[in-house]
Specification:
- In the C-terminal section; belongs to the class-I pyridoxal-phosphate-dependent aminotransferase family.
- Keywords: DNA-binding, Pyridoxal phosphate, Transcription, Transcription regulation.
- It comes from Methylopila jiangsuensis.
- InterPro entries: Aminotransferase_I/II_large, HTH_trans_reg/aminotransferase, PyrdxlP-dep_Trfase, PyrdxlP-dep_Trfase_major, PyrdxlP-dep_Trfase_small, Tscrpt_reg_HTH_GntR, WH-like_DNA-bd_sf, WH_DNA-bd_sf.
- Residues 16-84 form the HTH gntR-type domain.
- This protein is α/β, with parallel strands linked by helices.
- It has three domains: 18-81, Winged helix-like DNA-binding domain superfamily/Winged helix DNA-binding domain (Arc Repressor Mutant, subunit A), CATH 1.10.10.10; 92-100 and 352-449, Alpha-Beta Complex (Aspartate Aminotransferase, domain 1), CATH 3.90.1150.10; 109-346, Aspartate Aminotransferase, domain 2 (3-Layer(aba) Sandwich).
- It is 43% helix and 13% strand.
- A seven-stranded mixed beta sheet has the order 4-12-11-10-9-5-6, sandwiched between helices. A four-stranded antiparallel beta sheet has the order 13-14-17-16, with helices on one face.
Amino acid sequence: MGSSSSWPPALTVDGGPLYQQIVAALEAAAREGRLREGDRLPPQRTLAATLGVDLTTVTRAYAEARRRGLIDAVTGRGSFIAPRPEPAGPALDLSMNIPPAPRGVRLGELIARGVAEIAARTDMDALMSYHPGAGASADRAAAAAWLRPAFGDNLDPDRILIAAGAQSAMAAIAAHLAGPGGTIACEPLVYPGLLALAQALRLTCAPVAADGDGMRPDALDALCRARRPGLIYLNPTIANPTTVTMSAERRRALLEVAARHDAPILEDDPYAPLARDAPPPLAAGRSAARVWHVHTLSKSLTPGLRLAYVAAPSPDDRARLTPALRALSLMPAPLSAALLANWIRNGVAHDLLDGVRAEALQRQALARALLPGARAHPNGLHLWLPMPDGLDARRLAERALSQGLAVTPAGAFSPGETKVNAVRVALGAVPERARLEEALRRLAGLIETSPPR
């Protein structure tokens, strides 16, 4: 954490009320970078003694700074420079799908304590160097331990790669398996990151018809016969954006189709830890000889670590993918990988997951009361909201954005034209639950009052 050594200010007799001078100096120091987000301010008595003013003057200044959102106060720890909102973004963001911060958890403190534990037993100079390969063996063992509740005991750490986020992992798998000009079979509405990587790699996303249980096996069989896709993309648990969780029967049927056509599957499964009721991953099945399982920690814990775990079909497959992954992202940050492995071993990761799941449950209950027509999973991070007759999702999103409220229309999830008229509403990016309630009420009001197309 930074310090406040370049502050406090010099006060003047003719500069106006002293408490306002303190607030103005705080604001200027934060704007100019002399005080940064997270910097601790002096205790009020210390600052009063330094400036030669009454304690009440400093107390009033800190109270005004909190009211303006310049500082945060943490009981027992002091006052800190608050994060500054990015002016270009929406005031209320219901478009970014990230996990909500668990109540009562300070990630900064967990990170600081975890790094201190690692530093006490590790050569930090070595940790800060380049680390070729699929990840340190201890980190891969921790990854296997994290995935085993879903996979069962049959998960060899030698199948695991550690990647710098799911996006780079999926890009490496797509480049490795689909090849130049290849085809990826996917549902008609998919994670936009897949569409972006397909465009960057010059691959074609071919939509396969889906129903209320996900991709239809008969439609996949027909597409495999007609197009011979190099890869099948599935997001089986709390799918983004539709929130569908495939049944175990549907997963088995899709595995059978893929095996019949010798087509590999990319199983993108970021939300499974949130859903206590999800069937086992496709990669855990007996017919999973060509399933690549990608699990990012960005949706269940925090996006800032930029880590994903990849379970390759076999250790040999892992070895073959490693050069492709290295070509795209070189390596995951070793400190992030070590920190997460430490959290998995000492239980912090599971505590964080429980906290995210509990907060998501509360937010989904709030959304269900305000947007009763939405489709969602009780522990999911987003919901899927069909539009009433006569209301266009894209125009609603544009109108909402003009009023500082961001949602994502169905077109952002489609590899082509779509007739689906719905928006995805993400519930994790708005930090405070009260502000989320405000955002959802405003969205409900916009839906009710928007003119028909």
